[in-house]
Amino acid sequence: FGADTTRLIILADVAPTSSRNWTEDTFPGIFNWQNRLWLTVSKFIDIRKNIDMSDIGNVKNKDKLKKDNDYLYDSRNFYVKGVTFNIVGSQQLSVAISKMQGLTNSIRKVVLDCVGHSKEYEIALATQIIMLAPLAPQFASELWAGFCSAKYHLTGDDGIFDFSKDVLEQKWPEVDMEYELNLTAS
What we know:
By secondary structure, the protein is mainly α. It has a single domain (3-169), classed as Isoleucyl-tRNA Synthetase, Domain 1. The protein contains seven helices and no strands. Helix 1 crosses helix 4 (93-109) and helix 3 (62-89) packs parallel to helix 6 (119-132). It is globular. The chain starts with a helix and ends in a 38-residue tail after the last helix. It is an enzyme of class 6 (ligase).
């Protein structure tokens, strides 16, 4: 296993204050997650390679695309909030990794039309890679290089990401101002 996989398994296995009982049984979960991320970026590249820019928006089921976009918007904001809190606030990296795995699952649930035609899909995938970067920098850099190599990007002109810079130089994702956060008072 590589350095990033080993680092992720150490961070994901238990909380930093807990004792570690090392076992190789915990590797498959992280390794499978990395594989799903790699396949997701590969699928993104392949689908974007086979779609012409003039075809953007020409989808068979616009209602399903809208539903998937709304789902990705909600998922991305929910997981950005959770990952950020668990890295910066509580420093529970195992929980942050679990939240990132949740975002990966959300990204992989949408239909293929969403991969090729959705700005929200692109934002969610880039956000996933950026949040992974501090914990697995080499792996995230490879994912980012692949992501940036896609034939076209729908977020290119709006300044959300800088495709000329490495993933470690990207701004940390933030929850959108329009996203409705749950407020709990006790």
